[in-house]
Amino acid sequence: MTLLQAKDITVMAGGERLLDPVSLTLPAGRAVTVLGESGSGKSLLAQAILGTLPRGLAAAGALTLGETRLDPARPQGSRALWGRQIAVLPQEPWLALDPLMRAAPQVAEVHGLVAGAAAPDRLAHQDLAALGLAGAGQKYPWQLSGGMAQRLAFAAARAGGAPITVADEPTKGLDSDRRDDVLALLRRGLEQGGGLLTITHDLALAAGLGGEILVMQGGTVVERGPAAQLLAAPQHPYTRALIAADPARWPRPAPSGTGATTPVLCAEGFSVERDGRRLFAPLDFTLAPGRILGVAGPSGCGKSSLGNALLGLVPHRGWLWRDPEVPKLGLQKLWQDPPAAFPARLTLGQGLDDLLRLHRIDRDRVAPLLDRLNLAPDLLARRPAAVSGGELQRIALLRALLLEPRFLFADEPTSRLDPVTQALTIRLMVEVARERGMAMVIVSHDRALLDAISDRVIRLEPA
């Protein structure tokens, strides 16, 4: 049985075509996975199918969900099917969750109002426990780590029982164990006869889901085929580059040093507490200019809290010394969720202009950084919601580098980037760290990435 059929789906912005015609069929029990770089059109395809394109964009083509025919040009017709026939796992959980509602009630609400379940509270707690969130039911989204918020959004989206799921980066920000848990849940839905359309940068997830893979570049499908066949023997040069950019294939770094003797910071017996509970076992480390410290560990173990404490944003336990010669603006952070770090109502260029004016930064420094980060200058005319997650993360990096930091805490800086863009961005970050003597602490769930770029990797263990 065919659950979804899309024929010649296109997206236009005025007279400009952003997405060339794409057709796909989603049978019951099968997965279709879309791979590609940021801005390649993956999310536009999903939004056109869902009827959620941003204002100013228009879709065309033909769409059938089960027995229901829909016109992508009139997206309001699909709204009655949301949650009941087609569910969405969003790329940005912070924007999908209600910040004023606790975790369990958000899931229970979907069970009760959408699925009409008789015991929504009990089902919500079962869902959370299955995702490793048994103790988080009474917490608000802002009290959860990025990975925990992602799992909460997953539980809420799936609670309506829709046979079709559109998943936009469902494993973003998750450690390997939690990624395997989500993969198992997605596969369970397929085994029960559901259909799955996934937008992802995660090659391991694409391989685990099987089915068909579509590879997109510049709004065009450049290669498609069965998952196992395409990943084992890619034909298009871009597909080969995408697979080769997997961090597991990166060369390991040679020992490096800047010759500097004064460290940027030192820590002994360093830890962080929350609600009277120590998050991780005490740490000892020294970070010199130009050196990179990788931090790994499961979701919720305190990785972000560690970096915030190093920056002086939250209290800490133990001894911490920062070089007093480093000014306050010399300590910078790349946030795990860049949408939360940009004013939603200002264009990116307006926000950048404010930064340049406030700190008297030469405007001529912007263009070279845009070029190094592979960012089109016209992106600055858009608001944050109108650019891809990967583009927004790179703009956040540009903004931080303009302040010439001596210490940078990068919290999952590539979680929204496809493998090719991730490799380019990480290479730039490492180059800048070495060139400028910038010390860096980088958090990632990808141990292969940390091993490939870090001078030392520490794994946080629960206290």
TrEMBL record:
Keywords assigned by UniProt, alphabetized: ATP-binding, Cell membrane, Membrane, Nucleotide-binding, Transport
ABC transporter domain sequence ranges: 4-243, 265-463
GO cellular component entries: plasma membrane
Matches recorded under Gene3D superfamilies: P-loop containing nucleotide triphosphate hydrolases (3.40.50.300)
Major place of residence: membrane
Subcellular location as annotated: Cell inner membrane
Keyword Nucleotide-binding: yes
Membrane topology: Peripheral membrane protein
Annotated InterPro entries: AAA+_ATPase, ABC_Ni/Peptide_Import, ABC_transporter-like_ATP-bd, ABC_transporter-like_CS, P-loop_NTPase
Superkingdom of origin organism: Bacteria
GO molecular function, one term: ATP binding
Family indicated by similarity: Belongs to the ABC transporter superfamily.
Full protein name: ABC transporter ATP-binding protein
Source organism of the structure: Rhodobacter capsulatus
Biological classification of the source: Bacteria, Pseudomonadati, Pseudomonadota, Alphaproteobacteria, Rhodobacterales
